Amino acid sequence: MPRIAIFASGSGSNAENIIRFFEGRADFSFPVIVSNRSDAYVHERAKALGVPSVTFAKADFADGTRVLERLRANGVDAVVLAGFLLRVPQAIVDAFPGRIINIHPALLPKFGGKGMYGHHVHEAVKAAGETESGITIHHVNGRYDEGGIIFQARCPISPLDTPDDIARKVHALEYEHYPRVIERLWGNAPAHGMHG
Ligand code: GAR
Q1: Closest ligand 1 atom, CA of 16?
Q2: Which residues of the chain fall below pLDDT 70?
Q3: What is the pLDDT of residue 151?
């Protein structure tokens, strides 16, 4: 049974959506939510969900030791990044080979890299006059947004769409697909094609 830690820096709507998707199932568990911000709204969601949440300083993430101690204590064997904005250090990447994934709110390799998160991404997509955007779920390898792509889904953008409109469409794709990709990757569900 996968025991998954979710890393989140902000609102945590994806974290909540993932945990609710697997609620009542014995084959997945989410023993801890890990954040780099004690004031992130994800902690409120964690309380409401009954999932422990913990905050580590940026320096602890850069070093990795304390974070790894906590993950080991919780028996974690996979990590899901959901709006987590710090780089994952090599020590943590190495501790979970092939078992850390991230979601990026655009079609990588476009609109990725350091500083490209949340609203910045949707504003850049709008400024570039793109006719589509979407989501990319990918492995995490210690460099921003460069791990192997697992899944992408697309949405059209009209010239009238604002960055907020794009964000709404992208979030809808995230909610629909992220839990299902986790289920296909680490559950016993029959394998499906991973592109959609
Ligand atoms: C999500 O759209 C996620 O794709 C994005 O942050 C948002 C978090 O929303 N992640 C990145 O930009 C990573 N580069 P949430 O906190 O409500 O789940």
Answers
A1: 18
A2: 189-196
A3: 98
Contacts for 91 with CB less than 8 Å, ≥ 6 apart: 63, 64, 65, 68
Helix (H, G, I), strand (E, B) or coil at 86: coil
What integer pLDDT is reported at residue 195 of this predicted model?
Answer: 32
125 φ, ψ to 5°? -65, -45
The residue to which tokens 């839990």 are assigned: 179
**Active-site annotation holder among 104, 122, 138, 177:** 104
Question: Are the CB atoms for 195 and 152 separated by under 8 Å?
Answer: yes
**Cβ of 186: how many Cβ atoms within 10 Å?**
18
Token readout for 70 is 């906590």
pTM of the full structure:
0.94
Q: Which atom of ligand 1 is nearest to the CA of 118?
A: 12
CA distances 151 to 47, 89, 93, 100, Å, are 30, 23, 20, 14
CA of 158 to the centre of ligand 1 (A): 22
